[in-house]
Amino acid sequence: MRQEEREAPSRKFGDASLCVVRDEQGALTLEGGLRGLAFSHGCPIPDLVEQEYGAAWALARYASCNFVYKHIILGEAAAKPDQTLFERLHAGLLRAPGELPPPRNPAFVPPDYHIRMCGMGTPWGYAAPRIFLEQLGDLEAQERAIVDPEGQRFDQALRVLENAVSLSEEPIPFLVRFAEGVVEEKADRTAVLSHLLSLDFYREENCPSVAALVRQEIELRAPRLWRSYCGLSVAERRRAGIF
């Protein structure tokens, strides 16, 4: 067993604590290796992700999402005088009765995995950093922005995030406001929906009741996204990975 596999469970699952950092010489480095980053990301299936997408892609995805969630999204919520949203984003979510996730390798998840979703294992922890990254453009642009956060699209994403945080006390309304705001800034609607209502995420976590709440919130607060969602056939949603 590799060292990173032994060390990963000692960290808090899904706390986004491992990401991209600068060392003493100012060089960028990834903390924790693939297993450490995956554990910090709240991913229960890092072996399958690595198998499907490759280690380099998985490392970059875990690191960038962890960075955005910890330092940008939670950072913005923590700066709000009312700490309600920050606390609820950070707390995770108890699973609904009858909605247990599939059995997982105990080396990759904490003992309470089947009872509680961790912070990054919630719908908002999964979707919000990916939606932020979607606003930045393609994968190359996303990587550039995380390393050196500047430029119009980064500023737009930050402005939309600030507005969603200021208006919200609960995680799901925050998530949907943020997603709708990013779409107003011309991010691809289908791509945003594929994060907001990720078919893979809701299948992996087996939480249809939470998916229904997110969908209701989209209908209530996100007219652009709701029109796009209703305009897609069931087959088109499946092809796009939308629940």
Task: Give a brief description.
The chain has 14 helices and four strands.
Name some characteristics of this structure.
243 residues, mainly alpha, two-stranded antiparallel sheet, two-stranded antiparallel ribbon, 4 strands, globular
Strands side by side in the biggest sheet = 1-2
Order of helices and strands: HEEHHHHEEHHHHHHHHH
Low-confidence spans: 1-10
- Quick check: average pLDDT? 86
Helices, by number, come to 14
- State the total count of DSSP E strands: 4
Distance N to C terminus: 36 Å
**Number of domain units:** 1
Rg from C-alpha positions? 17 Å
Shape: globular
Class per helix and strand makeup: mainly alpha
Strand content: under 5%
- Main beta sheet, described? 2 strands, antiparallel
Outline the structure in words.
With 243 residues, the chain is mainly α. It has one domain. The chain has 14 helices and four strands. The protein has helices at 3-7, 33-41, 46-53, 55-78, 84-91, 123-136, 139-147, 152-167, 171-184, 189-196, 199-205, 208-221, 223-231, 234-240, and strands spanning 20-22, 28-30, 93-94, 116-117. The strands form two sheets. It has a two-stranded antiparallel ribbon. A hairpin with a 5-residue loop joins strand 1 and strand 2 (28-30). The termini are far apart. The model is unreliable at 1-10 (pLDDT under 50).
